[in-house]
Amino acid sequence: MKRKVILAGILACMGIAAQAQDVKSEEVKGKAIVQMFGNFHSGFGGNNDDRGFELERSYLGYEYKLNRELSVKGVMDIGKSSDVSDYQRIAYIKNAMVSWKTGDLTLNGGLISTTQFNFQEKFWGYRYIMKSFQDQYKFGNSADLGLSVAYKFADWVSADAIIVNGEGYKKIQKNDGLNYGVGVTLTPLKGLNIRLYGGLNEGSEAGKEDVKNMAAFIGYKCESFSIGAEYNYMQNASHKDGADQSGYSLMASTKLSKTADVYARFDDLDSKNDWNKAKDEQAAILGAQFKLGKYVKVAPNFRMSMPKADGAKNEYSAYVNCYFGF
User: Fold this and answer.
1) End-to-end CA distance of the chain
2) How far is CA 4 from CA 9, 104, 110, 189, 297, in A?
3) In a domain, 60, yes or no
4) DSSP letter at 237?
5) Any idea what the CATH number is for the domain that residue 247 is in?
6) Sign of torsion, CA 244 281 143 187?
7) What does pTM read for this prediction?
8) Per-residue pLDDT tens for 157-186?
9) How many domains does the chain have?
10) Is 191 helix (H, G, I), strand (E, B) or coil?
11) pLDDT per position as a tens digit, 314-323
C-alpha cells in the first residue's frame, strides 16, 4: 500500500511538472523597441551654411507575444514637424496593432505598417541613413490605420492585400475615402526577389482624383553583396488631376568584413510635363557603415543632389549618420 502511494505521488509530480513545462512554453514574451537616428552633417559650396548635429527620429515602444499566434505592438515616433517654421519635437503613435499568424497566413489590424514600400525599405537596409525612394519622395505613407493580410502560397511566391484610411499615421481620418493595395512577391531563385505592387487611394471629395500607385522592384542579396532596382509611378499626386510622378532607384552594397560594409544609391525623380520641376531631382549617396558592437552603427557618407529646376545648382554634403537600437 505504501509503495502504491509513493508511486502515485511520483506520477502526480511528473504530471504537474509536465503541465508546468507546457505552461512555461506558452508564456508570453515581450521586448522593448528603442531606435534612435542621428547625424552630423555639413554642406559644401553654396550649401555650406547647412551644418550641425541632428536627432532625426526616435522610436520607443513595446512588442508583446501573447502566444504562438497572437502578438501586439505599440510604437511612438518622435520626430520633427514637416512645417519648416516649427522647430518643436512632435510625437506620434506609429504603431498600435494586433498581429495573428497561423501557418502561412498573417493578419494585421490597427495602426499598422503599410505594404507599399516596406519590402524595398528592408532590402535597402539603411533606413536610418536615408529613406527608401517612395518614402523619401512622398509616394505613400509608412503606416496607417486599417487591416492587412498576407499569405505564402509556396516558398517562391506570396501575396498581400491592405485596406487603410489613406491619410497616414500623423493625421486623423478626415476624408471618407480608403486606400487599397495589392502586392505579389516572387523568389524564383535563392536571394533573387521580385516585388510588384498596385494601389488606389480614393479621392472622396469633389474635385479630388483617385491617387494610383504602381511599383516594380527586383533585387538580389547574398552574404557578401546586394544589388537592387525599383521603378515607381504615381498618378494624381495629392489627388490633383494630371499631377503624375515617376522615378527609379538603383542601390548596391557589399560587405568588407563582419563589422563593415559600403553602400551606394542613385535616385531619379521626374514629374509629368514638369509640373513639379522645382522638386524634381537626381540624387546620389556613397558611404560606409561600421558596426560598433551589437546596438550601435556609424555611417559616414557623401551626398549629391542635382535639381532639375532651371538655374538650380548641384548641392553637395557630407554626413555621419548614427544608429542606436535594439
Assistant:
1) 58
2) 8, 49, 57, 62, 64
3) yes
4) G
5) 2.40.160.10
6) positive
7) 0.87
8) 999 999 999 988 887 666 678 999 999 999
9) 1
10) coil
11) 999 999 999 9
